[in-house]
Amino acid sequence: MTTDVASHLLPVFARIDLAFERGEGAWLIATNGERYLDFTSGVAVNALGHAHPHLVKALQEQATKLWHMSNLFKSPDGERLAARLCEQSFADYVFFANSGAEAMECAIKITRKHHAAKGHPEHYRIITFEGAFHGRTLATLAATGSAKYLDGFGPPMDGFDQVPLGDLNAVKKAIGPHTAGILIEPVQGEGGVRTAPLAFYKALRELCNEHGLLLVFDEVQTGMGRTGELFAHRWIGVEPDVMSLAKALGGGFPIGACLATADAAAGMTPGTHGSTFGGNPLAVAAANAVLDVMLAPGFFDHARKMSLLLKQKLAAVIDRHPEVISEVRGEGLLIGVKAVVPSTDLIAALRDQKLLTVGAGDNVVRFLPPLIVTETEIGESVQRLDRACAALSSGEHKQAATS
Length: 403
Fold this sequence. Notes:
This protein is an alpha/beta fold.
């Protein structure tokens, strides 16, 4: 598939020499006609697979009506989407953005402004956790705290105190006179599909109540069904004050959202925040269509059933190939396989078997199938993993890569 045409795209991605022209459900069809089983889902974005007929219809109909109108005017469809998200969650208000990073920026601003509006602008610091990933803007990079992402961009933005995930004593010690809130992912996706005990999240809620802090959940990756419920905080049993969404919210169309309670958002008055494209009619139509499908009876039952099936089958592969993979972790269909070999080698071997996966921290390979994945496709994915492990065990993959 290699071409001699020089790319004018900024070279910030190490792109695989593989291109696709169309998709069907859980499958992607490459430009050479080969079919790949897509267990990346655009990194947890295409939750309803590719070319879902209800989403296609919604976008086609909206495209003939209105593409953009500005937030200077009312948006009936946006109001409906916001009402549906609030009805399904803890929130009273929603702000629409274009990405997860933008949704997180809004969450950070709400957290700081909440205290300033109550007469305490000195409360601006947010406690975050090692292994987190919150976005690529300067503020969300500072919240992430990873040196490899921050290197070369000057001093990190002030206001974030990072502690080990699951260490409640460290959280307590980090709370000080300038603390405004605690920010956490229900499951760390980029960080290696890592989670803390449920009691930890409940303790964070209690600490926030005790100290007058806001609890912020980053559900950019875990939200919209990825962990078996519409939002991960449902199975955790803890309601945050603020929550960010994106990725699967539009089923592939760019849209992000920041949800908040009325109290948390009390400082967000006209002029305190905005977005030119946030709540774009096309994006809103896509997100409403996603909710139509996800809120239908039985949708999450199916996703949880597929999760259990995939975990069981993955465990069997570990038994057969302990020299290649050692652990299955995660919730719902956000599943990580801990590799013994370099995770990049396993991802490449899976790609040789026409199965697409994505890496994560802690030498983990993420399996992120669309939530509409079938039992047959789950079985097919595990057969391909089995073959990839066998190739790595025998050295065939390395020989193929160097020949």
